[in-house]
Structures are given as structure tokens and as C-alpha cells.
Design goal:
- With 261 residues, this protein is α/β, with parallel strands linked by helices.
- It is 41% helix and 16% strand.
- The chain contains nine helices and eight strands.
- Strands 1-2-4-3-5-6-7-8 form an eight-stranded mixed sheet, with helices on both faces.
- Strand 7, helix 7 and strand 8 form a beta-alpha-beta unit.
- The N and C termini lie far apart (36 Å).
- One of its GO terms (molecular function) is hydrolase activity.
- Keywords: Hydrolase.
- Its EC number is 3.7.1.8.
- This is 2-hydroxy-6-oxo-6-phenylhexa-2,4-dienoate hydrolase.
């Protein structure tokens, strides 16, 4: 069954409507809902998989920031009346998920981070990406993956079109700078939810040492590396990623049931 994007007020999202708890997937700065196709298919039979669009390109300019995105997620969760959330975020989406979990720990059952920003990241940089330079964008997108062939022309074209739209490009830079300012090192000890960290061994954007720092700073965290994989393990190594995520969610759900019994 093909899922259709829903638009309700200021919210755009996909929702599988499956049984069980909510698995909320948050995309990165240059990511999109299509990044999670393998997770939708793997988990829609056991969870209500929900993918909201982070409105980087539609927020009022004065609200374009990490805080603006966190507020949007909070409003969305409240609008949908979700509880006992399993949050999963890649890159900037992980950063947003962490900040939401710190604000509303009562709503969050678990956190999964894949190549999350929040401690250190090396991506486009803090300056406006060069417009009209297709090869530059192609090379940058390819660094997301261990195998450059994973970076399809359609994906490169999408990013190229984004940075060549001056309004969108400006918002990308504003969001990236806001993320750098929101370093989480002094906050991670306050995370109470069980946390799964999945990192590509060849991640050049948030290198492996970043995953190790997250594991050290988050009280209840476990870290797994995937070889021959870079910044988007849920796309590049979906089978390994889904196995790790599925096992983690089962353990967390079992523990939650045991505590309630």
C-alpha cells in the first residue's frame, strides 16, 4: 500500500497507521522522508511509523533555527496526541530529537541516533554553498555515503536545486549555524530514555569518535558501528540498521511492559 503525504494545518507527514507504539522518524538537513523507505517497510507491521517534514523552508525567517524545528516537532506530537514515542533521527534529525527528548522526557520511550549532530559535524560548512557548481554539490553529497554510487543523480539534483534557490540556501546556512551553536555536551547527562547509537565506521561528517562521545555522555546508551558505511546507515546498510533497531525496540518495549506489570 502506497502512503500519501498528509497535510493538516501547518503539518505535513506520512503515517502508516500500523499497530503498536509510534516510531517517529526525523530527517536531516539535506534529507527527506524518502531516506527512510527501508524503515517504513520493515516496521510498519509492528509500529505506527510516522515521518513529519521538518519545515526548514516554510518557517517564518525569524524562526529558522534548531529551536524552531524542535517547537514544530513538539506542536506536532501534541496535535497528534502521541505518547510513549520511539524517536529515531539521522544527522540534524537526531539533534532535534535529542532536544525534544530533553524538553519532554515524559513522552519519549526511546531514542535512536544515526550519525547525529549535536557534538561535532563537518558538512557544507558555515558559508553559503557555491551556487551553480554542480560538481561541488555532487562531491559533497557523495561524502554522505561509503559507496559514492549510493548517491544517485536524483539525490544530487535535489540538493543542487535546494542550494541554488537563494531563499532555501539561506535557510540551510541559518539552520546549520544554529545547530553548531546548540552543542549538547553539557546536556546529554540529563537524557533518561534508553538510547541506541548506530554509526557508520566511515562517517566523515560525524566521525566515529562522535558516536563514542555520545555513548560516554548519555547514561543509558549503546553504540554499534556498521562497516563500509558512512553518514546515513539507514539508507546505505538498511538490513544491518533495521536489525539493530528492531532488536533494540523489542528490548525497550519488553522492559516497559515489565515495569508496568
Amino acid at each position: 500500500m502506497e502512503l500519501k503525504m498528509k497535510k493538516e494545518g501547518k503539518f505535513e507527514y506520512l503515517e502508516t497507521g500500523g499497530p503498536g507504539e509510534v516510531l517517529l522518524l526525523l530527517h536531516g538537513l539535506f534529507g527527506g522522508l524518502s531516506n527512510f523507505g527501508a524503515q517504513i517497510e520493515a516496521f510498519r507491521g509492528r509500529y505506527n511509523v510516522v515521518l513529519p517534514t521538518l519545515p526548514m523552508f516554510s518557517l517564518p525567517l525569524r524562526k529558522v533555527s534548531l529551536a524552531g524545528l524542535v517547537d514544530h516537532v513538539a506542536d506536532f506530537v501534541e496535535y497528534k496526541q502521541f505518547t510513549n514515542l520511539h524517536l529515531m533521527g539521522n544527522s540534524l534529525g537526531g539533534h532535534v530529537g535529542i532536544l525534544y527528548a530533553l524538553d519532554r522526557p515524559d513522552r519519549v520511550a526511546s531514542i535512536t541516533l544515526a550519525g547525529s549532530s549535536g557534538l561535532f559535524e563537518s558538512a557544507m560548512g558555515n558559508s553559503f554553498p557555491p551556487r551553480g557548481n554542480y560538481e561541488f554539490i555532487k562531491n559533497k553529497v557523495e561524502t554522505t555515503f561509503y559507496d559514492p554510487a549510493t548517491s544517485t543523480k536524483a539525490l544530487v539534483d535535489e540538493v543542487y536545486d535546494t542550494v541554488n534557490d537563494r531563499n532555501k540556501g539561506l535557510r540551510i546556512v541559518m539552520t546549520a549555524k544554529s545547530a553548531v551553536r546548540h552543542n549538547l555536551a553539557h546536556k546529554l547527562h540529563d537524557i533518561v530514555a534508553p538510547t541506541l547509537l548506530v554509526w557508520g565506521k566511515q562517517d566523515a561528517i560525524t566521525p566515529p569518535f562522535v558516536g563514542e562521545q555520545f555513548e560516554e555522555l548519555i547514561p543509558d546508551a549503546e553504540l554499534h558501528f556498521i562497516d563500509e558505511c558512512a553518514h546515513a546507515p539507514m539508507m546505505e546498510r538498511p538490513r544491518e540498521f533495521n536489525r539493530l533497531l528492531g532488536n533494540f525496540l523489542e528490548r525497550v518495549s519488553s522492559s516497559s511492559v515489565a515495569r508496568r506489570a
